[in-house]
Backbone:
């Protein structure tokens, strides 16, 4: 599970101009991908939603979507509930065993989540189980993410690696290889590089999964 830290909150509330610019470009890329999908009146799960920032972004870029955000951290869910005025449902949840039924969601998102997990394969299989059409995933683009941290003086003794990052995906190709090793081979996987992040859109081709 994701450690109970506030790194995600610090990232989204940072006053650093460069960090704000990089995050804005990342959000714009996510929004563009979301808008390209047929998600009108869709049911969407944001797995590992943190404080709800990405869930809000998705809401603003879909039409009449029902969005559910889950996270294992009570503090993050409390923040989301207290600070989000949109009709998004946030609750404590387990990304390894969500409790939702098969194919329940048109889109399942997990942004900046898999790098924190001890068993990312297990989480990915659970997201696959509950998604009907799409999965939208993002991870740090290594080695550039750690290099950026190191050059900015962050986590210098760890060569820029955050202490809560236990998995590393080298380039978009490395992340795609990981996804292909876990998911059925007929799935379409499109990878986008957005500076220090890698984003992947997984399309299940509308096929019913056994």
Residues:
């Amino acid at each position: 599970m994701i450690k109970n830290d506030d790194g995600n909150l610090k990232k989204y509330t940072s006053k650093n101009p460069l960090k704000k610019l990089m995050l804005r470009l990342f959000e714009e890329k996510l929004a563009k991908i979301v808008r390209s999908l047929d998600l009108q009146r869709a049911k969407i799960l944001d797995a590992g939603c943190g404080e709800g920032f990405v869930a809000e972004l998705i809401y603003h870029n879909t039409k009449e979507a029902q969005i559910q955000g889950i996270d294992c951290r009570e503090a993050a869910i409390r923040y989301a509930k207290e600070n989000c005025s949109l009709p998004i449902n946030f609750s404590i949840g387990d990304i390894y065993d969500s409790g939702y039924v098969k194919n329940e969601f048109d889109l399942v998102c997990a942004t900046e989540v898999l790098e924190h997990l001890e068993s990312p394969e297990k989480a990915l299989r659970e997201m696959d189980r509950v998604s009907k059409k799409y999965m939208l995933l993002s991870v740090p683009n290594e080695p550039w993410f750690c290099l950026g941290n190191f050059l900015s003086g962050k986590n210098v003794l760890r060569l820029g690696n955050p202490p809560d990052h236990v998995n590393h995906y080298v380039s978009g190709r490395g992340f795609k290889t990981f996804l292909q090793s876990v998911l059925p081979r007929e799935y379409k996987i499109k990878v986008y590089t957005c500076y220090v992040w890698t984003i992947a859109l997984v399309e299940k081709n509308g096929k019913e999964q056994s």
Observations:
- Residues 22 and 195 are 8 Å apart (CA to CA).
- The chain has one domain: 7-203.
- The first strand starts at residue 43 and ends at 47.
- The beta strands are 43-47, 66-71, 89-92, 105-111, 131-140, 188-194, 197-203.
